Amino acid sequence: MDPRSEVVIRQQDYLKGQVLFINAPNDQLVKSLPVEVEASVWTWNFADHQGFLNAEIKSNFCVDFPANRYDQVVIFVPKSKELLNYILHTVASHLELGQSVFLVGEKKGGIERAAKQLQQYGKAIKLDSARHCQLWQMPLEKLAQPKSLRDWLKTYTIQIDQQSLTICALPGVFSQDHLDVGTAVLLPYLQEVKSGKIADFGCGAGVISAYLAKLNPEQHIFALDVDAFALQSTKFTFEQNGLNLENLNLEPVTGFSDAPQDLDAIVSNPPFHQGIHTNYDASETLCRLAKSHLKSSGELWIVANRFLNYPPLIEQQFGQCEVKADQQGFKVLYACAGKVG
């Protein structure tokens, strides 16, 4: 069990009534609570959401506060400080004065910094410190006025050749306030991508999807991500740039295995972080499974850190892997399903 969950269980006597667990890990925490605690989960991680549903745990996969009444909330600190600000404000605009907000997190995950963010809504008390984690409690002393999700957006403009795009990103989404180097290296090559049915795996704020749609409004683009905030950001980016929403398919996925079949192309700046931890499973699975999701002449285009050893994984499946670019610490890799050697 996640050590943060173990700390919550140590102090379970503080929990009562309808309790919403926000950003909780996919483990046995909810199943281990006393019967008088009516627990449900709010998560924006689709893989975790599916895990909760499979365990018959009430789960909400969304970016807004779930439509229900809660007596208490337990927030598991997210990696992003901006995302925690959004969560705290949203909680403080839905609970009532005096209701308890609990905050739990790892020391290396910024729990002490997060506890300071909590104190803008009341006096926080540390209940426990164990397993390199801390648990804080705060009776809500100050309510917040509800804000539109759009009020939390950050926007920035990028220029590629003669094309201009405004990127919209919600808190916690990868590269929320600037274009990351890897995607910047990849973008000039998107004009070479085969047209048709295209998947953008790990779509983030929709930079790749939006540029593909800008180049050809008739593309059928499948924007895939595990994160509900990323999918919503991609939608905002399309709306902001007047792009064709009818040809955009926003699809939550647990991993690349959930991607559509018979694709003309897969384009990706694949994710390799899970919370505060590094995890290459998603991107390595993409390299191994990509060909099985492509048409006979379909293409794979990915950008990755130079030190990541993806070419051999791609070569095992495609028989070849071409390095289209190697600059600023990133490689653009290309493979065609219909080409061998």
List unreliable stretches of 5+ residues: 273-278
Provide the CATH top-level class of the largest domain.
Alpha Beta
Query: What is the percent of helical residues?
Result: 10-25%
CATH topology of the largest domain: Rossmann fold
Number of helices: 9
Number of domains: 2
Order of helices and strands: HEEHEEHEHEEEEHEHEHEEEEHEHEE
Total number of strands:
18
- CA radius of gyration is 21 Å
- The gross shape turns out to be elongated
In CATH terms, the superfamily of the largest domain is Vaccinia Virus protein VP39
> What percent strand?
25-35%
Report the major sheet: 7 strands, mixed
CATH architecture of the largest domain: 3-Layer(aba) Sandwich
* Cα-to-Cα separation, first versus last residue: 46 Å
* Structural class computed from helices and strand pairing: alpha/beta
Overall pLDDT confidence: 94
Tell me about this structure:
The chain has helices at 3-10, 46-54, 81-92, 111-118, 181-186, 207-215, 228-240, 281-289, 310-318, and strands spanning 17-22, 37-43, 59-61, 72-76, 100-106, 125-130, 133-139, 154-160, 163-169, 197-201, 220-225, 248-252, 263-268, 273-274, 277-278, 294-305, 322-327, 330-336. The model is unreliable at 273-278 (pLDDT under 50). The radius of gyration is 21 Å and the shape is elongated. Helices cover 24% and strands 31% of the residues. The chain folds into 2 domains: 3-140, Vaccinia Virus protein VP39 (Rossmann fold, 3-Layer(aba) Sandwich); 150-336, 3-Layer(aba) Sandwich (Rossmann fold). It contains 9 helices and 18 strands. The chain has 341 residues and is α/β, with parallel strands linked by helices. The strands form 4 sheets. Strands 3-2-1-4-5-7-6 form a 7-stranded mixed β-sheet, with helices on both faces. Specifically methylates the guanine in position 1207 of 16S rRNA in the 30S particle. It is found in: Cytoplasm. It is an enzyme of class 2 (transferase).
